[in-house]
TrEMBL record:
Record's protein name: Phosphatase PAP2 family protein
InterPro entries: PAP2/HPO, PAP2/HPO_sf
UniProt keyword list: Membrane, Transmembrane, Transmembrane helix
Transmembrane regions: 27-50, 57-74, 94-113, 120-141
Originating species: Saccharopolyspora cebuensis
Pfam family, one: PAP2
SUPFAM superfamilies with a match to the protein in the record: Acid phosphatase/Vanadium-dependent haloperoxidase (SSF48317)
Domain Phosphatidic acid phosphatase type 2/haloperoxidase per the UniProt entry, residue ranges: 89-161
Keyword Transmembrane: yes
Length: 168
């Protein structure tokens, strides 16, 4: 995103390939719905509460909220340089808020489930994040680097939360 070559490669995929009513657009509508995201967050928090892990419940909520807030702040704080590439847009879409929210939920879930159950949550979580990330690219909303950046933000916030709740 910071070099002409990088923007060319990244921008190659920035075109709306998803038709209205397509799976990609439907998934984005679902994954961006605040009611759905809120219900999923409540479910994650309830897992921790049922396990008697109240600090984990707070950590999980903090991961989701922190990831979404960090993604929004990064859009403002990291301007996208303009290199006057043909067909390129300087619109800063980094990182994807949809992907950040879903990735944050997956990371939060991994913080609250028992250690032995984490592998059962990783695979469907990765599938969910990949589907939402691919949908944002197919719909022309984001570049691949926007989706990857959102995943990295969720991972970083999750690591901070995990480090704050227990010693390294």
């Amino acid at each position: 995103m910071w070099t002409p070559v990088g923007q060319r490669v990244d921008g190659y995929w920035l075109g709306s390939l998803a038709e209205p009513g397509s799976f990609a657009r439907e998934l984005l509508g679902f994954s961006g719905d605040p009611v759905v995201l809120g219900a999923l967050l409540v479910g994650v928090v309830l897992v921790a509460v049922v396990r008697g892990r109240f600090r984990d419940a707070l950590s999980a909520a903090g991961v989701v909220v922190g990831t979404v807030v960090a993604a929004r702040l990064l859009k403002v704080l990291l301007p996208r340089p303009e290199f006057d590439l043909v067909g390129a847009t300087a619109h800063n879409s980094f990182p994807s808020g949809h992907v950040a929210a879903v990735a944050g939920l997956v990371v939060a879930l991994l913080l609250v489930v028992p250690r032995g159950a984490r592998w059962w949550c990783v695979a469907p979580g990765v599938v969910a994040v990949v589907l939402v990330a691919a949908s944002t690219v197919l719909a022309g909303w984001h570049r691949p680097s926007d989706a990857l950046g959102a995943v990295l933000v969720a991972g970083a916030v999750g690591r901070l939360a995990a480090g704050a709740r227990s010693p390294l």
